Amino acid sequence: MYVAVKGGEQAIDASLEQLARERRGDASVPELSVAQIKQQMRLAVDRVMCEGSLYDPDLAALAIKQARGDLFEAVFLLRAYRTTLPRFGVTLPLDTAAMTTRRRISATYKDIPGGQILGPSFDYSHRLLDFALMDEGAPGLAPERADETRGESAPLPRVTDILGQEGLIEGDGDLDGQAPGDLTREPLRFPASRDLRLQNLARGDEGFLLAMAYSTQRGYGRNHPFAGEIRMGDIAIVIEPEELGFAVEIGDVTVTECQMITQFKGSADKPPQFTRGYGLTFGYCERKAMAMALCDRALRAKELGEDITAPAQDEEFVLAHSDSVEASGFVQHLKLPHYIDFQSELLSVRDMRAKAMARANAKEAADDAA
Amino acid sequence: MTQLDEGSGPAEVGVAGYNFAYLDEQTKRMIRRTILKAVAIPGYQVAFGSREMPLAYGWGTGGMQITAAIVGADDTLKVIDQGADDTTNAVSIRRFFNRTAGVAMTERTVDASVIQTRHRIPETPLRDDQILVYQVPMPEPLRYLEPRETETQKMHALSEYGVMHVKLYEDIARHGRITTSYDYPVLVNGRYVMAPSPIPKFDNPKMDRMPALQLFGAGREKRIYAVPPYTPVKSLDFEDHPFSIDRQPHSCGLCGSNESFLDEIVTDDAGGRLYVCSDTDYCRERREAGDVMNRSAAE
Fold this sequence. Notes:
The complex is a heterodimer.
Chain A: H1 8-24, H2 34-40, H3 42-52, H4 57-66, H5 71-82, E1 100-105, H6 159-165, H7 194-203, H8 206-217, E2 225-239, E3 248-262, E4 275-282, H9 286-298, H10 315-321, H11 324-332, H12 339-369
Helix pairs in contact in A: 2-3, 2-4, 3-4, 3-5, 4-5, 7-9, 8-9
Chain B: H1 25-40, E1 46-47, H2 61-70, E2 76-81, H3 88-100, E3 104-105, E4 114-118, E5 131-135, H4 149-157, H5 162-175, E6 186-188, E7 192-194, H6 204-207, E8 213-218, E9 223-227, E10 233-235, E11 262-266, E12 273-277, H7 280-288, H8 295-298
Parallel strand pairs in B: 2-3, 2-4, 4-5, 5-8
Antiparallel strand pairs in B: 1-9, 6-7, 6-10, 8-9, 11-12
Helix pairs in contact in B: 1-2
């Protein structure tokens, strides 16, 4: 009997209803609020804003709620929203030295002007499940220390600038006359300029970049990195509308910046000096910023005349596969029906099998006759 | 009759906060310019600033962007996947345009002015007042032979298609036939080798000198290409191994057609099979036209 594959519409409706119910879960448990996610799932919010390339903690939290905590799905929701937004203008470049710094560490110097600031970090936590958190209203937090600050608001010089004074590290490039590209408006072309590469990496999937960065540490394109400086804090966003002619602050964003310092032996036209790998993320995404910096440096292999031997140095490989929205969509599209193609393959395989069997039979007959 | 109730006519409003057919007018203009370039250079993949759509990449975002850019309030849209109007993703895309553009929808090939398709070309010949929009996963026919975009661009620029012929030749040497059975590469207007999208090679001959405009959209890969009306489209082959299509040794169990591409439906776990037209509109038209096979004879 032929069971028609009809009723796609009702099936979709029913599926969406189930999804909504599952999202809500047991109705006797209070519903999660967007504000709670924004406050208490902040690192998830930061990751979604970073990979979604839209700085809006409320919408990111909403996306996480709607996606049932699936961060890929939340990034996708935010991206699909972002793509419809009008572009009002471009901000002035961020001066990260001027941020209100909540965390700042350098692995290259014991002490640096302004000092090292640990800030809120998992680094020195012992990864023991805290069963006290099982209960809401668990013992309150220790009162804030009298000397605790919400970040250092005085400008802190970047470690790379300190090295730069001695000419030990390459320059940071010149902004004059360079309008940064935007790969959300124009497709990425290869070879990609560094601005587009950094934009691609900033939007890239943290897991993918982490694995790529890790591979460089294990010998696939090793470049001897040092974490020159990692800083996280809040920084003002400034625009300069043409019709006004002066700069206006339009708000603050939290960013994490990582400057990796990497050995470079020099080339015919460049003296030996340290080179840079750069990572910058929306929010507090330190792992991502570090991975991004390692990937950026690995992808400079061609520019610096290094041999390209590893996947992390191959810009087409890295940049074409870093986007989680693209990757997730295309991998998962295999769920869609492919029965026309499969039927074509069946025809082809059946035909080849028939020919192969005919040949085998003919050979057998010939052998028997002999 | 087949006018779907969800799309009886242009809606007064689309989705609040979104433009007609979702994309903003600037983006539509950019896509139309890309389409014009694609039409001017048949078979050439034109890069465009593909947008994130509210459907996942790989699920028809390229085709949807083309449709959104060309569809107008007086158009009649048909959406098929695997030849059928009622497959879930076709339903989903149709709903999207119904919500955002409110254009008239149809399942009848002859009534549609724009047909968005995945994996099939309708059996009913298309006219020169129709546009066929293909959803394309991998626009680069050379990609499986050369993964680098920088290389494949050069190969197209120089018409350096030797690797493709070597691949097809090796198939023949090893297997006695070209083993590519879908997304079978074609040469457009004697110049560019083009991926026809994963349609069965059964459909390839329909592309040749088709009166309708054929537009191909690859959202994730950010490419649009086109075959203008009446353009020669030749499936790659050799003089001594001419292109041929696989004929299924069955006829449709519902309408009796032995001309159409058939789905193989597994009816039991004892080898039972039913073959039916993959093009559901074509099959229904034939049955309605009285060319109905006796069901009991078919079973």
